[in-house]
Amino acid sequence: MLPCFLVFLPPSPPLLKLTPLFAALRLTILSATTHLRLDPLAQARAWLGAARSIAVLTGAGISAESGIPTFRGPGGLWNNHRPEELATPEAFARNPKLSWEWYDWRRQRVSAAQPNPGHRALAGLEQKAAEFTLITQNVDGLHRAAGSRNIIELHGSLWRIRCLGCGREEENRAVPLRPLPPQCTCGGLMRPAVVWFGEALPVDAIHRAARAASQCDLLLVCGTSAVVYPAAALPDQAIAAGARVIEVNIEPTPFTDYAHLSLRGRCGEILPQLVASTPASESPL
Ligand code: BJW
Ligand code: ZN
């Protein structure tokens, strides 16, 4: 049985985020107007079926069911490893071998993992949608492995490495990667081509993501704590541009109160049900 929790809100500007008073008002409106006409999953399917342009934002939660640890929360990577010791430009400069050992461990773990039903459901959704963009914060490459094609990797990829000397970037799938740290043909030190705190996201990726979020009819926000910017601003941008936004997460997030619909449960369980054929004729509310 699917555990579902519904928050059903009229679209509203993200400005309401600005003050607790507005947030309280919004919740009051919510409790006064939450008369469910469809069950949450049916409502979400109706909106999906009616959407011409669909965007999806994913985070570590969608890969959790493939055995890849999330960053925050129970079992999260940041519980045992401090980002500032491993995953910042300063940490890498201080001790590139230590940082690489951690990335090498993660590469080994991901290389042994398979996409799960959540990844596959999104790949299936891409086949059905007239326009579809998958924006991911994940660096594991599991969306591509599942068959998704129009993917924007906001935080880079575990499978690409970049030279700090000449800037050359290459795909590298060696597992384990040796020697550590790897060296470029120019003699420079290679680093993982991922985005660390304090670093700018790839310009093209964030522009394309912002465009997809502001041009879609519907944005699905799946398995992200929605706390890391600028990715966390994309759902607000979608709402401001008039899109419906549905969140899928096992826990509430700072975005939950602003989502039009919040489905509480695992991506690997909810997404396949959401994407299971929905006739476009199911009229949206
Ligand atoms: C499930 C589930 C299941 C579990 N089903 N759900 C204030 C405003 C704006 C910005 C900032 C600010 N203060 C500081 C900043 C900057 C900073 C930031 O946002 N910090 C916040 C923490 C406050 N941002 C940056 O530094 C970014 N760069 C930047 O801003 O540059 C500015 C600049 C401009 C010009 C020049 C120079 C600079 C860069 C951010 C980079 C993030 N990097 C990481 C590491 C990537 C590499 C690596 O993998 O090692 O990206 S951090 C980490 O967090 C990783 C993730 O992509 C990212 C987001 O995490 P995610 O995916 O949401 O995972 P979790 O673990 O947080 O959440 C999992 C969720 O899944 C939970 O909600 C669970 O409940 C759920 N879940 N199982 C469904 N089965
Ligand atoms: Zn080089």
Q: Key features?
A:
disordered N terminus; binds ligand BJW; 12 helices; binds zinc ion; alpha/beta
Strand and helix order: HHEHHHHHHEHEEEEHEHEEH
Overall pLDDT level: 87
Number of DSSP helical runs: 12
**What characteristic shape results from the CA principal axes?**
elongated
Structural class by helix and strand composition: alpha/beta
**How far apart, in Å, are the first and last alpha carbons?**
25 Å
Uncertain segments are: 1-35, 279-285
Small molecules bound: ligand BJW, zinc ion
The tally of beta strands, per DSSP, is 9
Helix proportion range:
25-40%
The major β-sheet equals: 6 strands, parallel
Strand order of the largest sheet: 3-2-1-7-8-9
Estimate what percentage of residues fall within beta strands: 15-25%
User: Which radius of gyration do the C-alpha atoms yield?
Assistant: 20 Å
Structure description:
By secondary structure, the chain is of the alpha/beta class. It has twelve helices and nine strands. The chain has helices spanning 20-33, 40-50, 61-64, 77-80, 83-86, 89-94, 96-111, 117-128, 142-146, 203-215, 234-240, 267-275, and strands spanning 53-58, 131-136, 151-153, 156-163, 169-171, 190-194, 218-222, 244-249, 261-264. Mean pLDDT is 87; it is low at 1-35 and 279-285. Bound molecules: ligand BJW and zinc ion. Zinc ion (ZN) binds at residues 163, 165-166, 168, 184, 186, 188. Ligand BJW binds at residues 59-61, 64-65, 70-73, 76, 87, 137, 139, 155, 194-200, 223-225, 227-230, 248-251, 253, 266-267.
